[in-house]
## 1
Amino acid sequence: MSARVVDALGTWCPVPIELVARAAGRAAPGEVIELLADDPLIAVDLPAWCHSSGNDLLELRRDGEGWLGRVAVRRS
């Protein structure tokens, strides 16, 4: 199964998390969402959102000038 990609490049807090939340709401449990973001606050916001929403943060790393986050949806 390929990951659903959420491109939040060029957006700022809270937009990247809103986009991930919207994608998670449409995803099936177990589906992986990849987030592309260049807002530096994503390093704090994505782990916090995963914790509060019950989804699993699989990866969060720098990717060039931005960030790549991977989230496994636990509930839709």
## 2
Amino acid sequence: MAVSPWNRHDCYFRHVMSRAADAATELRPWVSKEVAARLRWDELELVPGSFVSHELQSRCTDILYRTRYDDREAYLYLLLEHQSSSDPLMALRLAEYQIAFWRRWLKDNPNAHSVPMVFPVVLFCDPSGGHWTAPLDLSEVIDPDDASRAFLADYLPRWRYVVDDLSTVDVDALLARDLAPAVATLFFLLKVAPRKPRLGLDDLHPIMRYLRVLAQGGGGELEAALTYILSMGDTDRTDLEPVVDQLGPEAKEALMTTADRLEAKGRAEGRAETLLEQLALRFGPIPASIADRVHNSSIAQLRQWTARVLTADTLAKVFE
């Protein structure tokens, strides 16, 4: 099974934004100056897990950080919207995700009489250039008629979020932000890669200074960027060789390793799809648990299972 575009965005986004110091360069400008001054940015701690509902994981990815607001526990919630149009019910979705978080928090703090503050930020980038148009407050999603809204104001919940709409920011303005190199690279590629079938030196020239920092810093940051580039569109290693030639020997090694890994993964995905087709023809619909197992197996294991398809008389015997 080929990796879907949203999954590529998800993996790359999580890799970059799971580094607290880098994520802080994106989150800090989106809270008010008064709030930013009272949040302890040096204490950001990544909270594992996701609060996005299963049916919406194909369009949203979330990251949650714990810190303190003065002497109180507080959280910053960053959600990447993958889709090519803004979600008109995002205010309601975010309310659901925050309530899901608070419910989990209360299980760990059963004697609490209040819950911590959560600051939500939505990151949006429509590859076609469309802008975010959805309501930014839960009260705007609820639908009284205009004449009634004024005297119903006390009954309308206020639950506001902010949006960083990369579609409204040109490349020069984006790269002028005070972002960590990995974050600037991520945002640039989110804007450019989905619209450009092949990326080469001319296309990546605006972020060469960031790629150079990633190459020198290690930690898998350059590999993550190369993985995303090679996974999107038709870019291959030959397109990127002039890029890494300017970045040094570490970058050349990273490109070779990344390209080889992706090619091996592509071969494994092709074998997995073929095996699942053979299993379905022989045994009928395949359970999701079996499909997941097949997609997460090595080529050697896939070869072994494929050899058993013609002789096994049950699905279970294929996987013995």
## 3
Amino acid sequence: MISNRTNGTAVPMFASFGIFNYRLFWIGALVSNVGGWMFSTAHQWMVLTELTDHSATALGYVTALTFAPMALLAPVAGALTDRFDRRKMLLTTQSLLAVNAFVVWALYASGVMTLGLAFVFATLSGVIQAFDMPARQTFVSEMVPRHLIPNAIGLNSAQFNAARLVGPGVAGLVIAGFGVGPALLINGISFAAVLAGLLLMRPDELLRSPKVRERNAIIGGIRYVAGRPDIIAVMVVVATLSMFGMQFPLTNALMATTEFGKGAGEFGILGSAMAVGTFAAALLAAKRARPRFRTTLLALAGFAVTMALAASAPTYTTYMLLLVPMGLCAITVLTNCNAMVQMTTDPQFRGRALSVYLAVNMGGSPIGSLVLGRVCDVWGARAGLALGAAMTGLVALGVAVWMMRRDGIELRLDRYWPPQLGVRNRAVEEALGIEGTPAEPGAGAHA
């Protein structure tokens, strides 16, 4: 049996690249995510400038329809992820996403795209992603051994944010030079890379998780998460950041156009500027041997401060530069939270626990996009940023106070899980940076 303990030392930044299957997955995802960020930028620009007259509310609806299915379908998606072969699930979902991308391009290129159709295909994309994301996130634990999970998550985040660094900027240039259509088409073509990576893998080298075939798998997953105070604390942090902080498709578009009077190229540069910070944060996460909850709260507080400064930025350049530390803080929070959920859940519940995490992460976005879209329409983009700063700052302070009042400076999660009296779980302790806490009588390391 593999021990849950880690030695706490930093691992080589690119350690997971030594695994063949992970290399294939990473390269394919990088190419596909560049196309995805180009699509996202082009789609937002299309809705904002061609299908509406700079309507923040309409852009908020598109975002909401894309992410709402994640919240609604999370229990079902998590149960299916724990039941079926995750590689085969990804081949199916990625193929469907490719078809959806080509249809959107064809409708736009033929001149029949409308705001209503944009809403329909945003919803379809959200439904497919509701099943794709839990399978994709938990597939990491089947490609790499447990001690490399934080490293693999960090490298995944690095490739995602490298794509985020390149994609919006390239999309802005393509839109400015050739229009929205080519940017949409490139996204559809880019799915070939991730599908090829999945097909070329060596299935016998995967570390397959146990498959769950119980009748009440959905209810069992919900009960498991409800009984884990550490996961609930993570959910609160992620929900707030998702709802009120990670609304940059909306706020960046409005700041670029209505506040600073910029065009498509400058809008794309804002996405790339933020990706500089997020890419740096992802590389730092890849070197981190274990995630710490106190690091998460400090990063959330830093995000709130920089977002407040961005709300009052006097120039486009100042705003662009502030996006760098905002991106760094945001990804530090998200990579830490993702790793904590994956490393501290029982393998048979991992898909369901992570689907709830993703539901909160992605499902919180529709609520925030609708609220901030309305706020921005009435009071302007700066008011939306100020609201996001206030909410994330309050939650960072509130969770920190709760931790100190409930358990002192160190949050003693080993009281709650696993449920056996007097048994400590080193993975939970190490995930939160708790070292050397006194054991209960008769306690020992839980392997």
## 4
Amino acid sequence: MIELLEPGMLVRHPQAPKWGLGQVQSRIGSRVTVNFEHAGKVVIDGTRVELELVDAAS
């Protein structure tokens, strides 16, 4: 699933719902940098966390 993530996509962290909506900033290998509403920029190891894609229309 991590291979699908591209800058601009909206995601949520399943174990950290309080972080709010996040926008993917970059993906290098399995490392994804996401800017979350309430947590700021976070680098996530995509081999350990499966981010949930959010439909931009919703």
